[in-house]
Write a structure and sequence with these properties.
Elements: H1 19-32, H2 40-44, H3 50-61, H4 72-85, H5 89-94, H6 101-118, E1 121-122, E2 127-128, H7 129-137, H8 162-168, H9 171-188, H10 212-222, H11 234-243, H12 257-262, H13 265-270, H14 274-284, H15 289-296, H16 308-317, H17 324-327, H18 336-339, H19 342-359
Antiparallel strand pairs: 1-2
The structure holds a DNA duplex (21 and 21 nucleotides).
Subcellular location: Nucleus
Pfam family, one: Myb_DNA-binding
Keywords: DNA-binding, Nucleus, Repeat
Length: about 375
DNA sequence: AAAATCTCCAACCGCACCCGT
DNA sequence: CACGGGTGCGGTTGGAGATTT
């Protein structure tokens, strides 16, 4: 038995607020202050749910709210805080005077998420997609050195990988991922009707960096298990942790924003002051005190030094995403076998597939429906 | 010019937590 | 301790306006 509704929804007005209704709320609050919102509609002469009145006040009518566009500095802060604490919009909004959690959430969903995607960065995990792909190649300790004959009927996509389902990903996550991959491949190339192996990746040019990010981002964002408010989804998190053989479900990752951004030549030249770098690392490192303290405690207790202008310089430069394949060095050196070129990426995938094929020939059953 | 599609954001929903009784 | 009302929060939706076809 669920909680009873806060009001009789059939008898209260819903939808957009009129100026007259706004005026009534404002008049009521100016006389009585906020609080006990369930009584506000009656006392203010409104045919609205009290909850709706509270929302209207907190998200729109409060006099301290800003209604103008987000400044670049605010944008930077949102991105950094989102990386540190995830979609804790209320905590993020507390760092942005005049902004509500709803404002921040909407701005993230409509602008910032897409911006990161265009830069080649997964907005869920704030990691470069190239790393995600390379880490996927390393999933569950698969060797990078395949020495097998080519096969056109290999099997990674043909049957649930027991290693996935038993230790890293749930069957639902795998199914969701595969389905998403299939849908997006078809969107890119409708002639691909039913890919049964990783070989299908070779059917389209991998160098199209506009398309690549979609795979993992959509897979992570569309899976039920990945829609939680945690800072990283279990789905994607598992991939990253495989890289360093860390505990399977653990936020421990070797990647940091500063490493990634420093790998960009333009950014690195602007970001050479040690003090700034130190502050930036502290702000961004998920293992460090400031960010994690925010996740655990009230954000207001944290002292974050924003060095966001450096970050903005990268965003505005616009080369991080498209230039990723060329510019990765220190941060992604161990991923070079996959990310250095399109062909090596595809070859890497195929190698993994072939190796898996040889290890688990029973996965070849073509009748298996991987949905 | 009209229809279709996309973008954006205000508002809603349901759950969880807090706190007084 | 249990219960219930108030509130906070994150995810989702609906629709107005903008843009594209």
């Amino acid at each position: 038995m669920g909680r009873p509704p806060c009001c009789d929804k059939s008898n209260v007005k819903r939808g957009l607020w009129t100026p007259e209704e706004d005026a009534k709320i404002l008049a009521y609050v100016s006389n009585h202050g906020t609080g006990n919102w369930t009584l506000v509609p009656k006392k203010a002469g409104l045919n609205r749910c009290g909850k709706s009145c509270r929302l209207r006040w907190t998200n729109y009518l409060r006099p301290d709210l800003k209604h103008d566009r987000f400044a670049p500095e605010e944008e930077e802060l949102i991105i950094k805080l989102h990386e540190a604490i995830g979609s804790r919009w209320s905590l993020i909004a507390k760092r942005l005077p005049g902004r509500t959690d709803n404002d921040v959430k909407n701005y993230w969903n409509t602008k910032l998420r897409k911006k990161l995607q265009k830069m080649g960065i997964d907005p869920v995990t704030h990691k470069p997609f190239s790393q995600i792909f390379s880490d996927f190649g390393n999933i569950s300790g698969i060797s990078n050195t395949g020495n097998l004959n080519k096969s056109s009927n290999t099997s990674l996509m043909s049957e649930p990988d027991h290693r996935f389902s038993s230790s890293i990903l749930t069957a639902t996550e795998i199914s969701c991922f595969k389905k998403t991959m299939h849908e997006q491949v078809q969107e890119y190339n409708p002639t691909v009707t039913h890919p049964t192996s990783w070989d299908f990746l070779a059917q389209f040019p991998i160098h199209d960096t506009e398309k690549l990010p979609l795979f993992f981002n959509e897979a992570s964002s569309s899976c039920p298990s990945s829609s939680s408010s945690s800072s990283t989804s279990t789905f994607t998190q598992s991939y990253y942790c495989q890289k360093s053989q860390a505990p399977l479900i653990s936020p421990t990752c070797t990647f940091t924003w500063s490493e990634f951004l420093l790998s960009d030549p333009v950014f690195s030249t602007e970001f050479h002051h040690q003090e700034e770098r130190s502050n930036f690392d502290e702000m961004l490192s998920p293992t460090n005190s400031s960010a994690m303290a925010m996740a655990q405690n009230d954000l207001s207790s944290c002292n974050i030094t924003s060095t966001g202008s450096n970050y903005r310089s990268v965003c505005d430069h616009g080369t991080v995403g498209n230039g990723l394949e060329e510019n990765n060095n220190a941060a992604a050196a161990d991923h070079a076998a996959y990310s250095s070129s399109a062909s090596s990426f595809v070859d890497g995938i195929l190698d993994k597939d072939r190796e898996l094929h040889s290890r688990f020939p029973q996965l070849l059953d073509p009748s298996f429906d991987y949905y």
